Amino acid sequence: MSSFIEIKENVRLAPLTTLEVGGNAKYFVRAENEDAVVDALAFAEENGLPVFILGGGSNVLISDTGFDGLVINIGLLGVSEFAEKDGTSYLTVQAGEDWDGFVAYCVENDLAGIECLSGIPGFVGGTPVQNVGAYGQEVAESIVSVLCYDRRQNELVTLTNADCGFSYRKSIFNSTERDRYVVLSVTFALRKGGEPKVVYKDLIEHFGERQPSLAEVREAVLKIRRSKSMVIDADDPNSRSAGSFFKNPIVSRDKLAELQAEMGNIPNFPFGDAFKIPAAWLIEKSGLHKGFALGNAGISTNHTLAIVNRGGASAGDILQLKNEIQRTVAEKFRITLEPEPVFVGF
Fold it and tell me: Which of 119, 299, 310, 332 could form a disulfide with 231 if both were Cys (CB 3.0 to 4.6 A apart)?
């Protein structure tokens, strides 16, 4: 076995996730450089093991039986600013960097483009996978390219923004090419001295007519997220979650008209030729309130979209509540809510 990796056995995964639930990994390796990732994948190949790539653990639900294969925990670190052209700065960030730490770094250095994504837990490597977005901004707007290890071709490849197939909470990494690529680093194009993006209702209301600075937008986003327990805080039990558990459903114009004819006004946002309906609104209007609990799993007392571990919850508890929410919303609105987190070991 290569000196680049140390394979551990029966490692607890719950402490490595924000939900703090889940069983053990049969095998586990922390990969702190590209060679370690390649060697770990080779070990899995030689031993016929399934592989799960674990970043910051903020968007996963791991089963109570754990993962019967190799978990590769990405630990590649470093930020390099390699070019500035016509007011645009290009930064390459290793996949294991803390996402919010990188956002803070950009705001401090007057680089606009990801300020509204402050406070989102997890690692940089996870952001292109889900096309992470919040408060009117998505990483797809600033990602130039993604360096990956291609498990099918066994080589390093650089995918352009267009190659990634970004759409709402989606990319090739979590859809058509799921499990093919391991993200190693991401290159962003950010605007030096650029104005912050203030298009989201909460932010527009917060600032009124005033044009805020990048730092003010970051602070406002963090304040709003904290009020909804969407910033990881050891003192806030509501933040023991995977963030927003469901995607905002997208419905056709006809479907929206049909629902509104039946139920009156339904909040919605134009999304191409379709409309996005807030999942949190659907959950509340179906009768599942903040603080609703099933065993040790519950809906956050601060935000209907978050399922929380109330203490001692199992993955089974989380799953049971997820199913109850989906069933209740489907019954009332004939809309199936789609979960955001990745389900591992089920």
Answer: 119
Catalytic-role residue among 63, 89, 185, 244: 244
Tell me which of 115, 138, 216, 340 is the catalytic residue.
340
Written as six digits, the tokens of 125 are 């490597």
Are 276 and 267 within 8 A, CB to CB?
no
Q: Examine the pLDDT at 11 and tell me if it is beyond 60.
A: yes
- The residue from 169, 180, 191, 226 that is catalytic is 169
Instruction: For residue 15, count CB atoms less than 10 angstroms from its CB and return exposed for 0-12, middle for 13-18, buried for 19 or more.
Output: exposed
The pTM score is: 0.89
CA–CA gap between residue 290 and residue 276 (Å, rounded): 22
Average pLDDT of the residues in 235-247: 85
Q: Is 169 a catalytic residue?
A: yes
* Residue 244 bears catalytic tag: yes
Do 167 and 255 belong to one domain?
A: no
Active site residue 151: no
